[in-house]
Amino acid sequence: MIQKLSRNFFSSLSNNKVLNRGAKRWGLKLGASKVVAGLTVESAIEKIKDLNDSGRMVTLDHLGEFVNDAQEARESLREGLHTLDVLHEHGVHCTLSVKLTKLGLDVDEALCWQQISALCERAAIYDNTINIDMEDYNHYGQTLDILRALRKKYDNVGTVLQSYLHRSIEDTEQLAGVPLRIVKGAYKESSTIAYQDKKDIDKNFVNMVQTHLLNESYAAIGTHDHEIIAEIKAFTEKNHIPRDMFEFQMLYGFRNDLQQTLVDEGYRFRTYVPFGRDWYGYFMRRLAERPQNVTFALRGMFSK
């Protein structure tokens, strides 16, 4: 009950526009600097290099979503192109994760299509990859439609599927051959479309990963749960699935010891590294996921 109340409370805060505007003035306060790498790609680049040096690949997420202004959406494209340029300039092993609402999906789908295509094109020039983050369920169908259209021209783009959605296993089957990042999901959704019980979400998560791997498709396994990780490791060994067909992923600032252990064991590993001034919504969703994260944040506030 306490965990559910905590999730609902912080999920509601993540959508508070007044607090989000205030957060941009505060900077990376409230412990957010522990889980957000910086306000600009330049401030994040050294952290990316450190992760690479430790054997970890990176995907970089320029935070921000739910853009409702065409000019702001175009600025997001410029920032995305600049980020790809900087990653290439520094020669880091780092892909780019993007949200379609940041690129104007709620403003004009044609504009969004133009902009995500431009990012895929620039990434292809650099032999890099674009990963489309999945957002709330209101944007789910549009996101998959745009992904399928992009895949007709670009093979350097994939997306995220969330195991708390009832339909996710069906979509996993339909997206065989597409690189997928599989996660549990961090948005608050109704019971008509999403599982509410952790056991159901976890079971579906493992099923999705196993299904995608058996379909000989690349899977990025986004979880901090050591029991699920152990189950996936046993499954891949039993089914003789090569380690270059999957990778484990965790969020920047969490379970650093386990991240390094997986690297040392010879598994492909990628750290999801967020940056940018729009850090507030991301940070609140991290607090919503687990009550333990609140304690983590408080330690960050008072350790400065």
Find the CATH topology of the domain at 37-158 and 242-278: TIM Barrel
Main β sheet profile = 8 strands, parallel, barrel
**Overall morphology:** globular
Strand content: 5-15%
**The first-level CATH class name of the domain at 37-158 and 242-278:** Alpha Beta
Q: Let me know the number of strands.
A: 8
What is the ordering of alpha helices and beta strands? Answer: HHHEHEHEHEHEHEHEHEHH
What Rg do the Cα atoms give? 18 Å
Q: Examine the secondary-structure arrangement and name the CATH architecture of the domain at 37-158 and 242-278.
A: Alpha-Beta Barrel
Q: Helical percent range? A: 40-55%
Task: Kindly report the average pLDDT value.
Answer: 87
What is the terminal-to-terminal distance?
32 Å
Counted by DSSP, the helix tally is 12
Structural overview:
The chain has 304 residues and is α/β, with parallel strands linked by helices. The chain has a domain at 37-158 and 242-278: TIM Barrel (Alpha-Beta Barrel), CATH 3.20.20. It is 50% helix and 13% strand. It contains 12 helices and 8 strands. The chain has an 8-stranded parallel barrel with strand order 1-2-3-4-5-6-7-8, surrounded by 7 helices. Helix 10 links the parallel strand 7 (246-251) and strand 8 (269-275). It is globular. The model is unreliable at 1-16, 18-25 and 293-304 (pLDDT under 50). It is an enzyme of class 1 (oxidoreductase). This is proline dehydrogenase. GO terms for molecular function: nucleotide binding; proline dehydrogenase activity. Pathway: Amino-acid degradation; L-proline degradation into L-glutamate; L-glutamate from L-proline: step 1/2. Substrate binds at residues 99, 285-286.
